[in-house]
Amino acid sequence: xxxxxxxxxxxxxxxxxxxxxxxxxxxxxxxxxxxxxxxxxxxxxxxxxxxxxxxxxxxxxxxxxxxxxxxxxxxxxxxxxxxxxxxxxxxxxxxxxxxxxxxxxxxxxxxxxxxxxxxxxxxxxxxxxxxxxxxxxxxxxxxxxxxxxxxxxxxxxxxxxxxxxxxxxxxxxxxxxxxxxxxxxxxxxxxxxxxxxxxxxxxxxxxxxxxxxxxxxxxxxxxxxxxxxxxxxxxxxxxxxxxxxxxxxxxxxxxxxxxxxxxxxxxxxxxxxxxxxxxxxxxxxxxxxxxxxxxxxxxxxxxxxxxxxxxxxxxxxxxxxxxxxxxxxxxxxxxxxxxxxxxxxxxxxxxxxxxxxxxxxxxxxxxxxxxxxxxxxxxxxxxxxxxxxxxxxxxxxxxxxxxxxxxxxxxxxxxxxxxxxxxxxxxxxxxxxxxxxxxxxxxxxxxxxxxxxxxxxxxxxxxxxxxxxxxxxxxxxxxxxxxxxxxxxxxxxxxxxxxxxxxxxxxxxxxxxxxxxxxxxxxxxxxxxxxxxxxxxxxxxxxxxxxxxxxxxxxxxxxxxxxxxxxxxxxxxxxxxxxxxxxxxxxx
Length: 588
Ligand code: GLU
Ligand code: MG
What we know:
By secondary structure, the protein is of the alpha+beta class.
């Protein structure tokens, strides 16, 4: 979940004092990176996945399932026997928000050859076996998006009571601070988000109503000093801290593009897929022990780190704050970055005008300048006293400070200074699946999609406001089967990413229904195609595969993955009856 530094983080009051300082140096650092690396070309296509895991104990005797709060120890052991002694170790392990979480990636990025698709699942299997092997008896490693009983009494091992009245980080009625990773970054983010906002975060997820659900569904909270009662909505599952969001797990993929232009093109194209793949991977219906009426974690995390003040949220007129801000720091992207995307940028963009002008003055184009100036309306949340002094030519911590706490559906990642890493984009909306087979299927599907987009110069862009509407739709219960999503009809007629995108600008945003470039489609139509409406992504991928040299074994693996995606999209997927809790599952 971003940059980890050793040191003493500042409290909110002091962080705030340094906000302008961090931003101004962050911008200088970005300009330096840009100037040094904007012409960097011919980086090879590389990519990698990130899987987040939960440590779970199954207590057969008491029939209890709890989250085990020893991620730190497990991580130390895994790093100690892996990357610390062997730079070529096939797995890498990192901390995550929950002290019951860890994150694993392949040791080296994957490259551009087709046969590498055949190693994704086995590397995920390696990770699972490696981590499982260092756990205690009865403990297992789970790839589960939201732990159903997160925040219920006694959900952790060891059990800790929540501490709403003390000077804790969360002040949650439900989630003990011990369940937050012990690295100071995580509790500091938690506390500073709450202090900046001026109150606890408030997450309200609609409850799923069956015939036994009281109506209205209203909870009372005995430990509450009144704040939660005011924030909790009737007929909703109420949650009150960062852990309910950032304590969820996901599946991410990062791509290195061959140049900054290709990265910007991929960023835009993939942005249109975020809601589609989110709905397709939906895996999180349970929150705080209740069945909810949503299928995805996204809005929950968004609310869990929403540090905006009441003024910024538009609840009060602006007096002490600078901007009205329309979204949480964890939310969908607000502007396309490629020239082709320009005409579809129809979302109100709050930017820091001074930073915008400074970037333009440094020779950066409008689209990139406004993107950065938008990210930089945010304050830093976690500042280390020891890291304030930076060499802006050779370090980028201040830039990364703001960048890495803008958790959007896509992330545009400049190369770190003095590294051999190129311009990258990160695809962040996917929910993690229970098995490595499924996770590999989603990863390979998304990577293949980037290959066809680049090879055939496809164009999936639609107005960004429509992508936002899609993202709301994606989280609804059963969106994968019932939802209708705005999608581009003709993906072969796009603008050439090398040109400036103005040539076809006139017909881009027509509102006259029949002539629109996009229409509403089901996930099934988008993925599998429908005669006369859209050819379907799977048929396009199949066509690409037919034209590629692929060994028989890899082809067979890929086709199996695509079959899964097809079935999820058509609603005919039946999870295999494998028992993910059985020891055999982890040995296979
Ligand atoms: N766990 C977060 C999620 O489910 C992502 C944290 C990260 O950026 O690594 O989206
Ligand atoms: Mg992560």
